[in-house]
Amino acid sequence: xxxxxxxxxxxxxxxxxxxxxxxxxxxxxxxxxxxxxxxxxxxxxxxxxxxxxxxxxxxxxxxxxxxxxxxxxxxxxxxxxxxxxxxxxxxxxxxxxxxxxxxxxxxxxxxxxxxxxxxxxxxxxxxxxxxxxxxxxxxxxxxxxxxxxxxxxxxxxxxxxxxxxxxxxxxxxxxxxxxxxxxxxxxxxxxxxxxxxxxxxxxxxxxxxxxxxxxxxxxxxxxxxxxxxxxxxxxxxxxxxxxxxxxxxxxxxxxxxxxxxxxxxxxxxxxxxxxxxxxxxxxxxxxxxxxxxxxxxxxxxxxxxxxxxxxxxxxxxxxxxxxxxxxxxxxxxxxxxxxxxxxxxxxxxxxxxxxxxxxxxxxxxxxxxxxxxxxxxxxxxxxxxxxxxxxxxxxxxxxxxxxxxxxxxxxxxxxxxxxxxxxxxxxxxxxxxxxxxxxxxxxxx
Length: 445
Fold this sequence. Notes:
Layout: H1 10-21, H2 24-28, H3 30-36, H4 40-68, H5 72-80, H6 83-121, H7 125-132, H8 136-154, H9 158-185, H10 190-198, H11 208-221, H12 228-233, H13 242-273, H14 288-301, H15 306-341, H16 345-365, H17 367-397, H18 400-408, H19 418-444
Helix pairs in contact: 1-9, 1-13, 1-15, 3-13, 4-5, 4-11, 4-13, 4-17, 4-19, 5-6, 6-7, 6-8, 6-15, 6-16, 6-17, 8-15, 8-16, 9-13, 9-15, 10-13, 13-14, 14-15, 15-16, 16-17, 17-19
């Protein structure tokens, strides 16, 4: 039996868990959602829903993880005492592996664009063109490079790998975002972006589309449902006070998403001022990969010589955000293979990394038909259903006295707390209904 790792500090866990939650979606998805859905009104609804919906599910994962001290498959098997629990864990294992497969492709693009800022600085035009052009070879090479970096970190285990790098990468990410916000805010056109981001349109606050979008963003931005938080929870000390620990993770995740908006939206309006098209033909703000790989590079090109340095910092930020998420994704299947199959950590990490790389390569070679399909299957369908399943396990299957006993380990008097008065019935009745409605609306939209 392999000895289990444990986070050596509270800060280490918070930064690692927040790093898992802070990914590419926070930086390119959240800002345009805000600007397209009533500005600060969306931010307000998002923050409320993050605590009304995402936080209770996050707590379910953390409590299950710490109580069982196990990977997702074994943990759900333990609390359910059935094969259904283990099957749900395997489903999460497969889902997170597929998410990592397409995620590493996009992260590979980030590395390529990051390196392009260096080759451009040294005048290597042909190499710069290759790095930013869509080709199978480029995609395979940089996807493989990103997965290798991820694997290198995860082989170090919990405290020497995941925690050690998270406490370096997350503060670096914060510093880069703040510096870029300060610089972009001094540019002509930025004030219009700040208005689009911060001025609320309260007439839209009860718009069903806004509520569904905010709910989805709150749920997915915390990387819930696929076992990353459950596995991280299993590495938390029994002395920690879980409700406040979970709240800290949620606050850091929300904070980074809001900061990303302070960077991206003013930057888009600076681009508009500099003659770059930022609206699609339908009048909506350009988002997703077109925003990151077309609009913003065009903006950097209009900034003159300083544009290369801004682009360098921005794509460094994107690579760091991708890494903090990918290490938690890879840890989910690694924890299962190490604990349930008795495979050594290093062997398990590289074996699973190769499997994910093969899946990524298969997507790359069939990009048009598979890339969007895999994203939809995992994030639109599988992830919310897994979140629903976790609520059922925590609210209906697992004994309440077992949950309370686990909470009291690091929280004397937990049974008298506001958290205990609300959370058990909330995760049992409210969360499953809300997640199901969100899932139904997103599928039928």
